[in-house]
Amino acid sequence: MEIYVDNITTIDEAKAFIKTHKTNFKGKIITFNKEKHKTRLASELFEKAKGGKKVIKTEKGKTIYKIIDKKQIIHYKVSIMLFDNEKTSISEINSLRSFILKGIKNKEHKFENLARVYSAHPTAKTGGDLGWLKKGTFSNRFEKVVSDKRVGQVFSFDEHRQKKYYIIMKTQDSKQIEEITILKIEQK
Amino acid sequence: MTKENIYILGIESSCDDTSAAILCNAKILSNVVASQKIHAEYGGVVPELASRAHQSNIVPVVHQALKEANISKTQLNGIAFTRGPGLMGSLLVGTSFAKSLAYGLEIPLIDVNHMQGHILAHFIEESGHKKPPFPFLAMTISGGHTQIVKVNNYFEMEVIGETIDDAVGEAYDKSGKILGLGYPAGSQIDKLAQAGEPKAYQFTKPKVVGLDFSFSGLKTAILYFIQREEKVNPNFVKENLNDICASIQYTIIEILMDKLKLAVKQTGIKHIAIGGGVSANSGIRTALKSAEKKHDWTTYIPKFEYTTDNGAMIAIVGYLKYLENDFSNFNVMASARLKI
Questions:
Q1: Sign of the alpha-carbon dihedral angle for B63, B66, B70, B73
Q2: Average pLDDT by consecutive 10-residue portion of chain B (340 residues)?
Q3: CATH class entry, domain B7-122+307-323
Q4: How many other C-beta atoms are found inside a 10 Å radius of the C-beta of residue B246?
Q5: What's the fold here for domain B132-301?
Q6: Between A and B, how many residue pairs show a Cβ–Cβ distance under 8 A?
Q7: pLDDT digits over B92-125, tens only?
Q8: CB contact, 8 Å: A99 with chain B?
Q9: Which of B12, B83, B163, B261 has the most CB atoms lying inside 10 A of its own CB?
């Protein structure tokens, strides 16, 4: 198995290998982000160069992790509150948003507290934090607006077509984050 | 779906006012207060009568608050109530009612310290009303309390001075009783004082070290002064009522302002907010306004209906705690001597 894996150098080759050998091996391609994945395994894999591998032997068999790709990708970080107008009029949303924006700008309330209470987004429970986002995750228009803002700035943003209305806080400047693409192969 | 608005019901029953208010996102939609007139004939609040009156008033008051706010109880997101300090029997009525309603509606229950309510009433959204920036000094003056509090944040407060005996409101009421005025006497003394000479009679100010207050000595001084003068002239009070009231008011304000000046000197904080029923007093308001120019202070005086005991101030604290996810257990108990 290791000889086969040693010869794989691209993601396409890895995908083809998984497809061809699915009866003998259980394979998948995974991506680790240096900011997000902090496990011991992830840390060990980040230490290795492209093409490097880690082999774990257990009683059940062997698992191989091979670094197929390693690159720096631009990420940015924002927290959001989502308001949609399925049941609420735009004027009501705007009135609520201006109340919230005023409270944050005057430092009367914390963004995360208001997000927890008012946001309709699944991140409401964690105060609206979306974590590090890879460039291209959202629309170009959204990412342009975010990149033009300063860290800590809070602003409204509308996606009229999708009837989605946001309050966004830029929480970190964009930066390059290392990502590794790994082929994981387990013996069946 | 957007959660839209947050509605909080605030219930206040710490003394002799039954009050309920509905708040929507820091704005007050309704604030209903049922004052208990029955205590006037006794010259002060009778605790047992107060709790009985709360029992009669609480349902119609809450009902009226919901009606005026034009919302249904099912729209409420949380129920805030005064846990203390206050009269135990009175507090128990509001606490039990709030618990039952929150339990029935399956919404959060939020316990509120009455004194924090007086201070945080400044954060009710009102057009034209400026909010004090942190840190600020809050002087809470009422019939039950006299405190100077250093407010570092919504829920980080430190009492730096308080009365060691009577509250300032008691000083007004007991002086009023000596002068034969009705209860409560604060507003009457304030009104009569406006036509009198503040320095007509001098009363000794208590010598209490630090930022603590004392008003019991002043009350005794006024009593002995009136008894002495009436021996000479039985109509002394009647003939000099305005001057006597103005002199009492002047002395009380001097005591309060002296301590405030000391608090500002010790803390370096020049943003001063007042709260509590006695903050409706015109003399205190004037003294604070003149201190703005004289001592470079910025003062914050709440809207009149938020100075006396009211549900709105409990609702705003409830809202602020709601944002912090700070809810009570259903086994929470009323606490007559609850501290900040």
A1: negative
A2: 81 93 97 83 79 92 97 97 95 97 98 97 93 96 94 97 95 94 90 96 93 95 96 96 97 97 98 94 94 94 91 98 96 92
A3: alpha beta
A4: 24
A5: Nucleotidyltransferase; domain 5 (3.30.420)
A6: 45
A7: 999 999 999 999 999 999 999 999 999 999 999 9
A8: yes
A9: B12
Give the CA distances from residue A64 to residues A11, A16, B32, in Å, rounded to whole numbers and listed in that order: 15, 17, 71
Domain A74-176 has CATH 3.10.50.40: yes
Task: Please tell me which residue of chain B has the smallest CA distance to A165.
Answer: B2
pLDDT tens for residues A99-136?
999 999 999 999 999 999 999 999 999 999 999 999 99
A87 by Cβ neighbours in 10 Å (0-12 / 13-18 / 19+) ranks as: exposed
Please state the domain extents for chain B: 7-122+307-323, 132-301
For residues A165 and B6, what is the distance between their CA atoms, to the nearest angstrom? 18
Domain boundaries, chain A: 2-72+178-187, 74-176
Best of A109, A111, A114, A126 to disrupt the B interface by mutation (most B CBs within 10 Å)? A109
- Chain A residues within 8 A of B123 when measuring between CB atoms: 108
Residue among B1, B324, B325 whose CB faces A84 most closely: B1
Note whether A84 contacts B3, CB cutoff 8 Å: no
Interface contact B2-A114, CB threshold 8 A: no
